[in-house]
């Protein structure tokens, strides 16, 4: 899976965390493409800080100028890849530019910062040994993984989690947690950990709710 990211629309890091976690828990390799670097070069830095140890690759491209697209095409060769992410980040524009297609793209609404849904169904395009499934994109998602699976779905935690006191440590309230230590020492990026705790809380609440009803 490739998560396409850009600015605009304002990147939703919680959404990327959930997508990456869901992919990792199903052993689907995950990379990020930061698009629209012609507009916002800083976005790539933020994405790298948050996700360089969480995904396979991070590419920086512009569907407008063509920058970085050859490298992306090289990586995509021989693969079947789903383009996911927020709407209006440029998923369809990248497919058009990569394949010389002319599929409909949409604008980011200035008012809502959301994209107009011009891609309404998932579509597969195959050229040059690359198969891309373009999707409509979404604005939010519910994560549907068990808490133990979730705790294992953060690749940058696993180097440390083997040292946690409890084998079933969720790295939240447990004592002698090496993941928390690594966050304090800066070896794990703090913002990503803070969002982890937030999503973990949501998963716990959902579990409680599911038990009740
Ligand atoms: N400046 C700039 N605009 C882009 C780029 N890629 C896409 N766009 C614009 O972003 C808008 C949304 O693109 P679209 O491909 O429909 O996004 P999708 O919803 O992710 O498929 C369109 O107005 C595109 O022209 C880019 O690299 N640079
Ligand atoms: Mg689209
Ligand atoms: Zn731990």
Description:
- The chain has 213 residues and is of the alpha/beta class.
- It has two domains: 133 residues, P-loop containing nucleotide triphosphate hydrolases (Rossmann fold); 66 residues, Ribonucleotide Reductase Protein R1, domain 1.
- It has eight helices and six strands, in the order βαβαβαβαββαααα.
- A six-stranded mixed β-sheet has the order 3-2-1-4-6-5, with helices on both faces.
- The longest helix is centred in the C-terminal third of the chain and has 23 residues.
- It starts with a strand and ends with a helix.
- The model has no long low-confidence stretch (mean pLDDT 92).
Shape: globular
Question: Which CATH class of the largest domain?
Answer: Alpha Beta
| The CATH homology group name of the largest domain | P-loop containing nucleotide triphosphate hydrolases
Number of beta strands? 6
CATH topology of the largest domain: Rossmann fold
Q: Name the structural class.
A: alpha/beta
Domain count: 2
Identify the notable features of this structure and list them briefly.
binds zinc ion; alpha/beta; 2 domains; 213 residues; six-stranded mixed β-sheet; Rossmann fold; 8 helices; binds guanosine-5'-diphosphate; Ribonucleotide Reductase Protein R1, domain 1; binds magnesium ion
Secondary-structure topology with pairs:
Elements: E1 2-5, H1 13-25, E2 31-34, H2 42-51, E3 58-60, H3 69-76, E4 80-85, H4 91-99, E5 123-127, E6 130-134, H5 147-152, H6 155-161, H7 178-184, H8 190-212
The structure holds guanosine-5'-diphosphate, magnesium ion and zinc ion (ZN).
């Amino acid at each position: 899976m490739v998560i396409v990211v850009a600015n605009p629309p304002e990147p939703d890091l919680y959404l990327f965390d959930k997508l990456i976690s869901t992919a990792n828990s199903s052993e689907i390799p995950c990379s990020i493409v930061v698009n629209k670097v012609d507009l916002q070069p800083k976005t790539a830095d933020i994405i790298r800080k948050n996700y360089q140890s969480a995904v396979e690759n991070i590419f920086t491209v512009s569907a407008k100028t063509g920058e970085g697209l050859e490298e992306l095409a090289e990586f995509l060769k021989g693969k079947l890849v789903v383009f996911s992410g927020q709407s209006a980040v440029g998923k369809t524009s990248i497919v058009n530019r990569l394949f010389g297609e002319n599929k409909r793209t949409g604008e980011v609404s200035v008012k809502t910062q959301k994209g107009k849904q011009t891609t309404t169904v998932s579509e597969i395009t195959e050229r040059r040994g690359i198969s891309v499934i373009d999707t409509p994109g979404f604005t939010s998602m519910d994560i549907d993984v068990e808490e133990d699976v979730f705790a294992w779905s953060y690749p940058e935690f696993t180097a440390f989690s083997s040292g946690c006191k409890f084998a079933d440590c969720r790295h939240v309230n447990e004592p002698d947690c090496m993941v928390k230590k690594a966050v304090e020492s800066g070896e794990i990026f703090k913002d990503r950990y803070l969002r982890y705790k937030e999503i973990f809380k949501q998963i716990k609440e959902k579990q409680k709710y599911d038990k009740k009803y």
